[in-house]
Amino acid sequence: MKNIPERKNAVSNSAGFNANGFRQGIGKISKKIFFVATISALTIGGLLISCQDKNNQNNKTELMQNNQEQKEGILKAIELYVEAGRKGDGNIAKPAFASTATMSWSENGVLKSVPIQALFDGFSAAEPMEANYTLTTLDVEGDVAIVRIESQFGPNKYADMFTLVKGGSDWKIISKIYQVKK
Fold first, then answer.
1. Alpha carbon distance 39, 47 (integer Å)
2. What is the pTM of this model?
C-alpha cells in the first residue's frame, strides 16, 4: 500500500505535473472567472436597471399626460358651470352635467336637493355677472373624480363640491353640493 501513493507521485511527476502549481493555476483562473462574472453581472444588472428606469420614466410621462388630459377634461366641465353664471345662460352649463345630476345644500339645517335643471333655470333667470373660481381639490380615481372649488358669482361666495364620472370621452358632473360662504 505504501507503493501506491509513491506511484501516484511518480506518475504525476513523470508526466511533468505539479499538483501545487495546478492548484495555484486553478485558483488564478477561478479568480479571473469570478472577476469577469462579477463585472458581467454588474454590467447586465446596470443595463436592466437602466431599461427599467427608462420604462418607469415612460410610464410616469404617460401617467402625467393622462393625468393632465383628465384634469383638462374635468376642468372643462367646471369652466362651463362658471361660464353659465358669468353669462347668465343656464344652457351653457348643460353639457357639463349628466341629465340625472342633482344639486344639494343645507338651508337652516334642512337638507335640500333638486334636479340640476333648477341650477340652469337660476343661471338663466339672473343677469350676467362677474364669476370666477379657485380650484382647491381635484381627486381622480380611474373614471370618477371629486372636485372642490371656491367660487364667486357676483357678490356671493360659495364652497362648491362636485362629483364627476367619465362617460365616453367627456367628464360629466353627477352632483353638485354647495355651502354659501359668509
1. 12
2. 0.65
